[in-house]
Amino acid sequence: MAKKKKPTAGQNELSPEDAGREFGISLKELETLMQTRGHEGVKELNETYGGLSGLAQKLKTHLIHGLSGKDADLSIRLAAFGRNEIPPKPPKTFLRLMMDALQDVTLVILIICACISFALSFYHPGGDTFEAEVKPKEANVEWIEGAAIIIAVIVVVLVTAFNDWTKERQFRGLQSKIELDQKFNVIRENSVRQIPIKDIVVGDICQIKYGDLLPADGVVVQSNDLKVDESSLTGESDLIKKHESRDPFLLSGTHIMEGSGKMLVLAVGEHSQTGMIFKLLGATKEEEVTTDKKPSESKNQNNEIADADAKERLIKSGSAKGAAANNHDATELQEVNLDGDKQTGGDDDPEHMKVTERSILQAKLTKLAIQIGYAGMTIAIMTVLVLLIRFSIEEFIQRGERWNNKYWSRFVRYLITGITVLVVAVPEGLPLAVTISLAYAVKKMMHDNNLVRHLDACETMGNATAICSDKTGTLTTNRMTVVQIYIGEKHWKNVENPNKAKEIVVPAKTKEIVFEGIAVNSSYSSKLLPPPEREVLAKQVGNKTECGLLGFVGVLGGSYDEIRTRYPEERFVHVYTFNSVRKNMSTVIRRPDSVVRMHTKGASEIVLKKCKTILNRNGDVIPFSNVDYDRLVQTIIEPMACDGLRTICVAYRDFTPDALPDWDDETNCVDQLTCICICGIEDPVRAEVPDAIAKCRNAGITVRMVTGDNVNTARSIALKCGIISPNDSFLVLEGKEFNRRIRSKPDGEVDQALFDKVWPHLRVLARSSPQDKYVLVRGIIASKINPTREVVAVTGDGTNDGPALKKADVGFAMGIQGTDVAKEASDIILVDDNFNSIVKAVMWGRNVYDSIAKFLQFQLTVNVVAVFCAFIGACIVKESPLRAVQMLWVNLIMDTLASLALATEVPTEELLTRLPYGRTRPLISRTMMKNILGHAIYQLGVMLFILFAGPTVFDMDDGRPVDSVFKPSEHFTMIFNVFVLMTLFNEINCRKIHGEQNVFRGIFTNPIFYGIWVVTFVVQIVLVQYGSVAFSCVALTFEQWMWCLFFGVTVLLWNQIVNLIPVTHHMPKWGAGEVYEPNSPVDLGPEGQSRQGASLTKGQILWLRGITRLQTQLRVIKAFEDSIDRYPLEFATLDRLRAINVPKVPSYYNDFEHDVPLNNSTITDNQPLSTKIIQETEV
């Protein structure tokens, strides 16, 4: 890399015009050619430039051997045609990020209060005042109140803006890393090289294949069934077939959806079609902010990738160019042809479960802030009114005074008191607590291999109730190995063992066909490299399934490299590439003996159905009938699948050179095959996955596996992972059966009522398409049968997983196997593709939620005590016992430090032992409300005791104002000090919010917490002893300090008493999320109608469940007995039992509405309680 850049720098003296003269075609001509495209472009290419060969001559390149790769040649090309990179959009300035942070409603309210308070502090009306002698001393510091609020707001804004700036810088750093890591295959000096995408130059020959995001504009020079999705640039949702002679133009930023081939690069960087669109976006990309599924990012979370709506559709970043097209929206149209808006109301529908305005936590916080605001406003207005009315009655009615301007100062002071009460009521430390908690979690999650792209996904994951996970690579290691093979009429097992592999006896001609079929009929980018250091196994590069097969070629003593050398890709006659529809791939080659042979491999059931002959033990071709097919399925394929193996059938067909078929007629071509072998490929379950899934189950999270594998393979893996167990009756469905159950008509829309009968019991969805995954995710999100609503997380790695990742509440993309589109559609990237990392994300998400709840419990206790103390003091004593500046010390400075202390708690495994909160559970639970009210009552009682009885009990002067003149005193200083110390010790209590007895547990695992606690305590001592002027304090004696400390420590003891109080349903709860009516058919009569007066106690419900479970188990046992009578033991699979025993009548899937008589041996996975069971249990 460095060697190439030096000459590049030296050649910069060569102007683009001079460099352009070196070639027979100019940059402008190439741009015009790419813009023309279509039939006119083909005509111009052939007539003006002499076709592909003529264009290659003008660009001084070779269509087969590629460029020479010499530094001088590359430098000239860079000067003439530009570098393959698009300058990234400049980041937001720190000032802009601060302006974004200031959009927070709470901060706006605080600023308004501060401005009013600040202005009033300097308002001194003319004439006499009531505080002529004493008040000026305190008046000098009245401005501190407004200034303190402003300082607090500035702190919040700076922290938020700095966090966003840091996050943007991290993402740009990640982008730079991606640019260096992402490479593309080019042909230089007749050899394939992997180079960084930005080093691609005009004239390069690039190898392109399925799943690639094209890094530059160019023309096809060789293609194998090449189809491209150009929807992100052209809006055309259909796949476009590309061929050298018909529509050869390829555009940067588009996706190769099928096939493979080679491309001659014609335009790079800013001169490509994507680059031109970037130029057009220019001024508008700053203003048009995309509305992603997490629009709250535009306020708090600045995501560099979510810029402009046009950019979102056209040029999603993620390729090493810095920006390339994302076909996610188009894929959704093309692959998921569903009218989502009709079915779920669309994203704008208020009934739609998905919160499009804000995340779950933000919705609850917003609602809570509004509720607190109303309460604070009410008490503030009441305080001002009580003070005004009492003063007016005393002055104008009892004393008969006339109005004088001197009364203005008193009215202004009362208004300041009211504003102070309002300011204290608003939890201004909350935005900082949320920001710190999220930022801390994101930073720590990176160490757990979770790269968080959207901050709010962090806390949303803590609420997750369902995870729809891929199998390959996430639950399994994604290292494929052939462990069983059926070849030459014999089934060989444990062939991964070299000693066992030597025992395989296969005729030489069969071996030759196997080697050729696997080596040629695989992507040439799939290969085995020497093992890395400290490893024994070869490194698998490319498609892991193909790598497993290639490894088996080596086990049998073959060399796939030699075969590939004999059959280069450009000599292929035709290629049918693998896709999710055909589930097989075929490659047609011309052998040296002139025979045209088509090699096919794919899903065993599909390929085997196309076979009419098979190779026997001698290597001869013998007929293969339907009876033979059934026998192989039952004796070979199903046992392999039940062992958790992916079964691949390898077959071939020969054509005579003089009778070649029409290769476009795929149905007739890929037929009449000869079966060579059936391979059983194992992808071992990750060692840590079963424990991780067990943790999810304990945490109340349902894990569902969505895979394209055979149903038996999927079930076996699910059993090994612990997603299902042998004795449960959860559903394991194939995609076709799943779609049949959720639709009232075969090709109709998804019926949510039918869907709601399937998904609660569904655990494994096999042979599924990306559309099935999308439908599953959307349906679970839209379902209302669970009162708290489901919060769904999804994993995905493929281009077609984009819609499901986008639709989910939290989308996890695979960092290793994931495509660019999947990463763009995701919220969190799993750096190690490991399911265990998802469990860690759940822990951190719940920790964020709990951290904010801890801070809320602390903050609201402070607020309730301070507000009511001010209100009672104003009403009875005519003066708040706490001065405005003292309140702000407690409410702003202490709370800011407390937010830092409580928001940095480290998560523990205990977080995974409770159920998720869900969408609708209130942020402040009844337990928290009990703690808040319990401590507020105690602290208020102590403060009022000191206020009224303190002078007598503690032998001090009464500090209550005389003739409305306030003087700092020991009395009021002690009230302030006791309040602060009780708050400090309550901060320790707030570390636990679920009623735990030991509040000190784990306190020393968080040095930030105890460090801040000690610092705050020391600062309080300094303020009381030495802050007489600014904080209206008088130094206290040692005895008074001991009393203050005693009242502070008793808060810890009071917490134990509060914990003993049972939580009742009469206690209020605040900050609930969206409220929905639960549609769950909890108690149904015989006709599915809700019965009156059918309220069951917990004991009755448990009894019902026990009886139901017992009867279900009895039915399962009876079903197994019946099936064993009918079939040999080895064929009595659960799928067969279901097929035998489930009645094939349409109404079976509507059994909530009609009672269908079922025989005694029926196993039904979603059958409700029958009328008989309900009647029996009622007795």
The CATH homologous superfamily of the largest domain: Calcium-transporting ATPase, transmembrane domain
Number of helices: 43
CATH architecture of the largest domain: Up-down Bundle
Using only CA atoms, what is the Rg? 36 Å
What is the CATH topology assignment of the largest domain?
Calcium-transporting ATPase, transmembrane domain
Specify the overall morphology.
elongated
| CATH top level assignment of the largest domain | Mainly Alpha
For the residues shown, what is the average pLDDT? 75
Number of domains: 5
**Beta-strand fraction estimate:** 5-15%
How many β-strand stretches? 26
Structural class from helices and strands?
alpha+beta
Structure explained in plain terms:
- Residues 288-352 are annotated as: Disordered.
- The chain crosses the membrane at residues 105-123, 143-162, 368-391, 411-442, 855-876, 932-951, 971-988, 1008-1028, 1040-1061.
- One of its GO terms (molecular function) is metal ion binding.
- Belongs to the cation transport ATPase (P-type) (TC 3.A.3) family. Type IIB subfamily.
- It is built from 43 helices and 26 strands.
- It is elongated, with a radius of gyration of 36 Å.
- It is α+β, with helices and mostly antiparallel strands and 1179 residues long.
- The chain starts with a helix and ends with a helix.
- It folds into 5 domains: 16-84 and 200-285, Distorted Sandwich (Calcium-transporting ATPase, cytoplasmic transduction domain A); 102-124 and 142-179; 360-442 and 843-909 and 919-1060, Calcium-transporting ATPase, transmembrane domain (Up-down Bundle); 450-475 and 687-833, HAD superfamily/HAD-like (Rossmann fold); 481-682, Calcium-transporting ATPase, cytoplasmic domain N.
- Strands 10, 11, 14, 15, 16, 17, 18, 19 and 20 form a 9-stranded mixed sheet that branches.
